[in-house]
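Note to self: keep these together.
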Amino acid sequence: MANSSTSPKPSDLARGISTAMIPSIAAIPLAILGVALLIVGFLRREPIDCAKR
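Structure:
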């Protein structure tokens, strides 16, 4: 398609774009889970007591 002298059909472009979006859409729940785990980790950690050292 990159070497073609004619314009691609809109349906071909739409198919390519939708194929490229699948991994991005699949990664969104993983990103949300990662952020949630980071927040929970920061909320659950114990503060360091500098007076004991």
